[in-house]
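> call design_seq(struct)
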């Protein structure tokens, strides 16, 4: 904890449980991201996501890891307990994305399904979409570099996760094989204020919504557990 800095000032709008569904559709769903606080209570899910509980339930189970670069499809399968013992560690700033393995989005939902039944998803939906979960656990300094896809929500269960976001018409400057940590150290300081992304750090219980086709990159400031709800 504390080895990767938070942003000086959160520039993503925040909303609380008073946000209605109609206002969510009107103000955010198709136009800009928002951080939602107090819209769900996932304390029961959080209690099942401690290191000890997850190892007891899924230790020998295989998990599929992805490389942490933008245009790669390499996957590696390892037992969950091996990932926790050997790969769940702080990011090496000099390591390329293609050599960094990241646990997110490719879990065996047949085996992990009972865990996700305890998750309370955000209460909002985009008309014509259906939700799909992606669960992740990662070390300090790890993350996914800039990419885009359909709309979704992301909630932090343990730790802190820093987000960087650009609208669809503003492609960020990045190298596809550079980790988010390397981008933060090398490219981010050179950006003039007008070219900086929207950014904020999520804490446990906070949910970020991002609209369709928005560029985003993530950076785990601590060893983190997180879950996304993609709307496809």
């Amino acid at each position: 904890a504390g080895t990767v800095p938070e942003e000086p000032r959160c520039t993503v709008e925040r909303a609380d449980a008073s946000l209605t569904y109609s206002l969510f559709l009107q103000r955010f769903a198709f136009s800009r991201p928002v951080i939602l606080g107090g819209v769900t209570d996932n304390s029961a899910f959080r209690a099942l996501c401690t290191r000890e509980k997850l190892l007891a339930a899924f230790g020998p189970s295989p998990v599929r890891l992805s490389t942490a670069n933008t245009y790669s499809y390499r996957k590696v399968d390892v037992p969950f307990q091996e990932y926790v013992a050997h790969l769940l560690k702080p990011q090496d700033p000099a390591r390329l994305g293609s050599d960094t393995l990241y646990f997110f989005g490719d879990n065996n939902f047949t085996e992990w399904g009972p865990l996700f039944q305890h998750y309370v998803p955000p209460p909002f939906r985009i008309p014509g979409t259906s939700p799909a979960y992606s669960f992740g656990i990662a070390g300090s300094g790890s993350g996914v570099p800039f990419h885009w896809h359909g709309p979704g929500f992301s909630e932090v269960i343990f730790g802190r996760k820093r987000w960087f976001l650009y609208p669809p018409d503003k492609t960020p400057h990045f190298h596809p094989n550079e980790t988010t940590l390397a981008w933060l150290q090398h490219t981010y300081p050179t950006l003039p204020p007008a070219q900086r992304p929207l950014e904020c750090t999520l804490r446990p219980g906070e949910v970020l919504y991002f609209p369709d086709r928005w560029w985003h990159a993530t950076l785990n400031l601590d060893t983190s557990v997180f879950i996304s709800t993609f709307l496809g």
